[in-house]
Amino acid sequence: MSLSVFLRRAAVCAAALALLLAAPVRAAQPEEALPLTVSVGGQAASSLTDGSRSTKVTLSGNTVTVTAETPFDALYVIWDQPPGEWILTPDGGQPASTWGRQGFLHEYVTLPRAASSATIEAPQGAILCEVYALTGDTPPAWVQVWQPPCEDADLLVLPTHADDEHLWFGGTMPYYAGEKGMAVQVAYMTNHWGEPYRPHELLDGLWTVGVKNYPVISEFPDLYASKASLESAIQVYGEDTITAWQVELLRRFKPEVVVAHDINGEYGHGAHRLNAKTLLAALPAAADPAQYTDLPYEPWEVQKAYLHLWPENTITMEWGQMPLEAFGGRTALEMAAEGFACHASQTAWFSVKDSGKNDCRQFGLAYTTVGPDTAKNDFFENVVWPPEPTPEPTPA
Ligand SMILES: [Zn+2]
C-alpha cells in the first residue's frame, strides 16, 4: 500500500471513528513511526500526528516541540509549502542544525544521536502538516529521502502538470531511474500550490517510481487556459518565457536525452502543446553560445529528444514487458500505474493506457544529433557518453 493510500485510509477511519465516539480520536501513523506528541507554542497539536496532510498548523514564529517516549534518530517532516530554512534542536545538549535549504516539501532529517525530544523553529507563516519520529539508520520505504536536483542529469523529463509524468511517459521513470539507477531529473512546467494536496501527490508518485532527485517545480501557477487552445496557453504562460525556462533547464541539468509531451497536447491541452512546441525551439537554442548569454550556465547540446506520440522515427517502449527487479518484478507499466495512483485527485478522469490514442508506449525521436534509432528499444541508443572528468593530479 502506498503511503498516500495508507494516509487516506487512516484519515477515513479516523473520521468514521470520531463520528461514532463523538470524541477526538488519534489516527494511527505508520507502525514504523514512533508514538510522539507534538506541541506548538506549548499547545498540543494532535493534527500534526494524525496521519493526514490536510490537517495543518500555521506557525507564527512559535516553537514546535516533538516528544517521544522512545528516543528517535530521525524526523520526517511534511510541510504544506517549502517553509524556507528551519532549525532543529534536539535535547541533551546536541547542536542545532539547519534544514529546508533545498526547498523540500517532505524532508527526512537525522539527529547526531538519538533524542527523546527536539524543537523545530521555522519562519513565520510556515505551515506544518505532519511530523513522524523514526529510529535506526534506515528509514522505511514510505519515507522520502530526497537528494537535491541532479548536478548532471542523464535524462530530463518535462511534464506540464503533476500526473502527466506517469500518464503520458509511462514506464520512463521506473525503468531509467528506478531500475537502471540513472540520473533522472523531472521538471514541471506548472505548479499546483493553489491545490495543496497535489504537490504531495506529485512527490509520492515520483518516489513510488524510483525517482530520487528532487523535482523542479516551476514558478508558473497552473492557471486556467482554454484546454483545447495553444493560443490560450501562449497568452497565459508566454512562449518566450517558457522557451527561456527550458533553455535554462537544459543548460543546468545537461541531459543526454529529454522526454516530453505530444506536440498535439495529448488530448489537445494547450499547456501540453506549448511545453512541446517551446522545447523544439529550446533544444538548438541551448546549444548556441550566441543565445541566452545572460544565463549562468554553459551552452549544452542534448543528443536526443523524444516527444510522446511524435509521428516520425517512432519507437514503442514495451513497458508492459519490462519486469523490474527494483520493484519486485512488477513491470514498468505496472509501476507507471502505481505512480499515477498516488494522484488521488486525478484518478477519476484519467488512467495509464498501453493502447489507443493515449498509449504511453509510443514516442518519436523529434530531435537527434546522433542519428536515428535502429534497435528502437532504448531512449539511450546511440548516446555518446562524455568522458569521465580526469582526476586532479595528486601532488607527489
Ligand atoms: Zn497535464
Explain what you see.
- The chain has 2 domains: 30-134, Galactose-binding domain-like (Jelly Rolls, Sandwich), CATH 2.60.120; 155-368, Rossmann fold.
- 25% of the residues lie in helices and 22% in strands.
- It is of the alpha+beta class and 396 residues long.
- The strands form 2 sheets. Strands 1, 2, 3, 4, 5, 6, 7 and 8 form an 8-stranded antiparallel beta sheet that branches. Strands 11-10-9-12-13-15-14 form a 7-stranded mixed beta sheet, with helices on both faces.
- Zinc ion (ZN) binds at residues 160-161, 164, 269, 272.
Comma- or semicolon-separated keywords:
396 residues; alpha+beta; Jelly Rolls; Rossmann fold; 2 domains; 8-stranded antiparallel sheet; 7-stranded mixed sheet; 9 helices; disordered N terminus
Helix % is 10-25%
CATH fold-level topology of the largest domain = Rossmann fold
Number of domains: 2
What is the terminal separation in angstroms?
56 Å
Briefly note the structural class of the backbone.
alpha+beta
Number of helices: 9
Oligomeric organization of the protein chains: single chain
Give the overall average pLDDT: 91
How many whole angstroms does the radius of gyration measure?
A: 22 Å
CATH class of the largest domain: Alpha Beta
> Which molecules are bound in this entry?
zinc ion
CATH architecture of the largest domain: 3-Layer(aba) Sandwich
Please identify which CATH superfamily of the largest domain we are dealing with: LmbE-like
Low-confidence stretches: 1-26
Strand content: 15-25%
| Overall 3D form | globular
The total of beta strands comes to: 15
